[in-house]
Amino acid sequence: MLKQIIIAASLVAATAALAQEATVPTQAPPPAPYQEVSKLVDLPEFLPGLGTLYVDPATLPAGPFLAYDHDGKLSATVYMTPLADLQGGTAYDDLPVGAPEVTSVDIYYNAGHPGVEQPHAHVVLYHDADAKSRLAQ
Amino acid sequence: MWTRRHLLARGGGGLAALAAPRLVRAAGTEVLGMRGSARGERVWFAPQGLAVAPGTTLRWTNRDPGNSHTTTAYHPDLYGRPLRIPEGATPWDSGLLLPDESFEVTLERPGVYDYYCQPHEMAGMVGRIVVGQPGDPGWEEASADPGDLPDMALMAFPTVEAILAAGRIDEEEPT
Predict the structure, then answer these.
(1) Distance, in angstroms, between B118 CA and closest chain A CA?
(2) What Gene3D superfamilies does the record tag this protein with (chain A) (predicted)?
(3) Fewest beta carbons within 10 Å, which of A77, B22, B85, B133?
(4) How far is CA B73 from CA B113, B147, B150, in A?
(5) What is the pTM of this model?
(6) Torsion angle defined by CA atoms of residues A36, A41, A44 and A45, in that order, rounded to the nearest 10 degrees
(7) What residues does B168 pair with on adjacent strands?
């Protein structure tokens, strides 16, 4: 099971790395149709590890979610892919990326939260070397 | 931030004078946490199982800085879920609590109360409160009907016997 999750999430990450670049500003807030996640669902405005997230609701659950730090700088692009969907054959192809430079990628399991309640994988593309630390707290 | 929402679960009148077993905490206020690992891999109630005396107030506080949680009783009046609290007890639903928000409920009727977190039931975030002990007037056992509960939730409930023996059951913190 864990191996399947890792393989599936890795495929998503590989796909995302090749995806098209989104036309979004590097400073928050991004324009419509992006909306702040904490105004769509009951979640904190700044999520430790993810920052302040914006998403086009039409793209849920996968996103992309644009992650901004406390200074409003675009720091990461995040995808949230339900494990059951991946196992059921759903593919998330050609997902936009918030910025062309990706310095590292984290993939990990999440048990769910308002907005994406199914257990899912977080695929986090960091856009600069310090992004992870700025999004941490 | 402190949001105090309060609900009194009725139906236990006349039971306050009953003697509590040794490991059942005396009526008062018990504090429970809603917890999550840093990246949200695991979410849980702390404690997951708790034995209390009738008339005890339970206060849940969201201690998870990166997530929202509810405490919601299993009851047909709440989202059509199976009855897993004593018949006649009033069900509760906190709604989504942001970090550091709290919710209180007072339980009077003896028996077993099962509850869950709405966004995290599939991840097994459930809890069980045992009010009083078997033999108390009006005591109701835990429901044996799995109903529509996901397997992760059913497997996560501590047994009534374990809760009564230990007083509280805490899930191991992730390392």
Answers:
(1) 9
(2) 3.30.200.270
(3) B22
(4) 7, 14, 15
(5) 0.82
(6) 10
(7) B50
Q: Among A51-55, A111-115, B90-94, B168-172, which stretch is predicted with the lowest mean pLDDT?
A: B168-172
Q: B117 labelled as ligand-binding?
A: yes
Ordered alpha helix ranges (H), chain B:
151-156, 160-166
For A127, the token pair is 């856009």
Task: Name the residue ranges covered by the structural domains of chain A.
Answer: 2-136
Separation in Å, CA of A15 to nearest CA in chain B: 23
Asked whether the predicted pLDDT for residue B171 surpasses 90, the reply is no
Residues of A in contact with B43 (CB under 8 A): 111-112
Q: Which of A45, A78, A113, A120 to mutate to test the interface with B (most CBs of B within 10 A)?
A: A113
In this prediction, the answer to ipTM > 0.85 reads no
CA-based max dimension of chain A: 39
SS3 A17: helix
Q: For residue range A77-135, list pLDDT tens digits in order.
A: 999 999 999 999 999 999 999 999 999 999 999 999 999 988 999 999 999 999 999 99
Cβ atoms of residues B84 and B140 within 8 Å: no
Fold designation for A2-136: Phosphorylase Kinase; domain 1 (3.30.200)
Partner-chain residue, chosen from B41, B65, B96, that has the shortest CB–CB distance to A111: B41
Structural domains of chain B, ranges and CATH numbers in brackets: 6-168 (2.60.40.420)
Tokens of B44: 């849980």
- Minimum distance, in Å, between the CA of residue B44 and any CA atom of chain A: 10
